[in-house]
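Help! Submission page says 'invalid entity' but I think these are all valid:
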Amino acid sequence: MAPEQEATSVTDAYEELESRVERLTNITAGAGVLRWDQEVMMPEGGTPARAKQLSTLSSISHEELTDPEMGNLLDELEAADLDEAQSAVVREIRRKYDRATSVPTELVEEISETTANAHPVWTEAKEEDDFETFAPTLETLIEQKREYAEHIDPDADPYAVLFAEYEPYLDLETAERVLERLRDELVPLIEAIGESDVELGGAFDGTFDPETQEELSRDVLDTVGYDWDRGRLDTAPHPFSTGTQFDARVTTRFDEEDLLGSITSTVHEFGHANYTLGLPDEGYGTPLGESRDLTVHESQSRLWENHVGRSEAFWECFLPTAAERFPALDDVSAREAYEAANQVYDDNLIRTEADELTYHMHIIVRFEIERDLISGDLDVEDVPEVWNDKYEEYLGVRPETDAEGCLQDIHWSHGSFGYFPTYSLGSVLAAQLYAAAEDEVGDVDAQVREGAFDELNGWLRENIHRHGATYTTPDLVEKATGEGYTADYFIDYATEKYGRLYDLDEY
Amino acid sequence: MAPEQEATSVTDAYEELESRVERLTNITAGAGVLRWDQEVMMPEGGTPARAKQLSTLSSISHEELTDPEMGNLLDELEAADLDEAQSAVVREIRRKYDRATSVPTELVEEISETTANAHPVWTEAKEEDDFETFAPTLETLIEQKREYAEHIDPDADPYAVLFAEYEPYLDLETAERVLERLRDELVPLIEAIGESDVELGGAFDGTFDPETQEELSRDVLDTVGYDWDRGRLDTAPHPFSTGTQFDARVTTRFDEEDLLGSITSTVHEFGHANYTLGLPDEGYGTPLGESRDLTVHESQSRLWENHVGRSEAFWECFLPTAAERFPALDDVSAREAYEAANQVYDDNLIRTEADELTYHMHIIVRFEIERDLISGDLDVEDVPEVWNDKYEEYLGVRPETDAEGCLQDIHWSHGSFGYFPTYSLGSVLAAQLYAAAEDEVGDVDAQVREGAFDELNGWLRENIHRHGATYTTPDLVEKATGEGYTADYFIDYATEKYGRLYDLDEY
């Protein structure tokens, strides 16, 4: 072909790819609304029909992604001269295409069936505190997931393949190195806190009317600058955020005895939604308008939850609003609120109720166990004991039941192995990004104290959100911070903050 | 083939058809949830992405319906020996398949583009009270719809083809005969009412807090037996009902000065949702679990709205509850409430605010005009004058503006021609079904007075709902009532009820 003809053909091929990918986006986004509806709005009777609707959309999406013509277009475009944005789109779709085409449909359906059945089995096992009931299902899921990984890359560590489903661009070695470092640095810190005489007090002890809590959650979202024209707040038993740059919704939960929980949960989910809302409108329909993977997403939620929402500056800004809603807080000082928001509970067994610091121990325990389950170094029957041993070692506390131990979280019953580490990897990235933002926009604390979040959010928009999935995670981090992904900032942040809060000489 | 092989092949073909049709149902039902969300929950910013999502689902659904393999399966099954239910499924899918395959995709897309652009044009024309602005768009829509009809059946009256989109089994001659009869019988009745000295009073005059109205709407739904495990109530500017037998939702609206409006709107939408909820669970995914077309659907909403909700018995049952919510109603008697609920407003120009009786004049005017527009007997430019003349003739009142006249309703801008008549056809059927139910379950009024709706609803479940689309509309009516579709019952009902209410000697 003459160069001109070739260019036309490449342009056509790219347009065809774009149009197919936009269809996929529309199906996925539509399914996202159905899932949001299921969690937040749907009457219980709707379950069987909704399951069928979601299953059909998932099949269609799989069929469209794995259409051989998609493969031809990718082949053609990979051989062509594309600009940076086009190359990024091709790179992201290629990854999804290769994964989707390499696993036989039968295995996907088997896994889907096992997980559908696993949910009630896990629920019962947890209720009855009986790991034995869940063990055979877990065994099957591990075997199927190993097989799944082998189809994708027979030469790779299967756990690394599964991990890449959630975080494709930070390799497992990096993840392991970071998690080991967190363990090695945080275990002694948590021990020291346990030995400290400091009590951070119960500024938020008491009961708080859930309806007023909801109003306060709206105040929180007003304060941090949530765009209500493109979002909404609802309640859900397990808070989450979902949507697109045009409509990114937040959910939270209200517990009469846990006002702080609803505030931190709202700020956390705001972080996710705010990332989604910062994706470029014009990128909708391709990876250029999609978020990066779980590590980056979690960095956004953790940055807002921890670096903003648990800062003393935030409480100086927000406490008066909270006290307007709940006059019982009139006598609480910003310092006391800050301290209460950062109490470390070293006797807590439940991940979802954990503080900022011990949280990572929950992650590390499950990470170490699931990695060994997939590799075959650990047998399913030994999980409860190993789980309890690790809690004793890392947190100094031993679960007395499996319900409070290895059965506490739903993820394995979903067939999710390799998901957990991204929670900690995201926290680590949050600290790195916050430090880089501080370098550039000046005294963020002073701005937060004034309720001025524009500069911080502007930095995030400019350096993270607007790029969508144009860059891989390591490139994105490098561009945003000038250096590679590192746990240094998180360790500094954690040791300095908690060293001061708990008056620890050695920190 | 040997008979046994043939049977296997037919079974396989039927199963394949079923599975394809269930996929279609899942896509359509999913799109229904997206539309509900758009009207009820979605933040405004979500509009552009939602439009794309719905457009993709609509394309996929069209592609799957018109897949040539669908045609092959239908051919094979039509030649086979099927049972009643299977034949019904094949009949219904054949009709949809033939319609979808006979219209060129380009024309479908053109119409879709015209209607998308028509909406803002109509909105502006209505706001500016300027029919001229809307006229060229209306002209284009009429031409495109004529062309559309010609593709489906070049030998048929194009308006009849369009009408069949909404009501495929009652032919246009039947519809015309019924509408003419309504006009001939109701015009003198409305005139007589206009001359009557009776004033039915303003039992519901006043202002009513919208939040309390919402509680009262929930009371209404409790009273008539809405299944909250499979439904929910929300507000929407234009109330509607949507869903499946597993999840059929109701919306209503609240106007401070119109308590009665929210109650009748809630009961009306309940009638729709209650029909959907009565469809058999096991039929989900095929026409056996889908409702019949608009006439039957509207018969269910009108039966509950008018024959139940506007009856004296209902007000004897419900008024105490209403008075609990609104103590201002303490002094109102059930008779007064009944009278207020049945006031005829012969000077009202707006369909959506019309009473039970004059409502049909609004329908008939638009029906006569749109029929003549499609046939070419009426030019677009003459619509406003003909509209106003007909209002004067049928209702004795002449609109002073087009905004209050021919521009009042959105339907034409959607490209919906042939939809309007089903509103009246449904009311007519409601009266026929209610009479048949009374014959079988005894004194329905006495039951309603006691708040006992089980027998009436049981009759509807047994005779209408559970059949889904197994029978055509005429067959369904014949089976349920023992006779063909007729306006006799509606005319009797209307003349008797309003003759008494307005003390008319001649009725």
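Support: the input was valid. A stray whitespace character was the problem, and the output above is from the cleaned input. Chain B touches chain A at residues 22-23, 26-27, 29-31, 33-34, 37, 41-50, 52-57, 59-60, 227-232, 243-247, 249, 281, 284-285 (CB under 8 Å).
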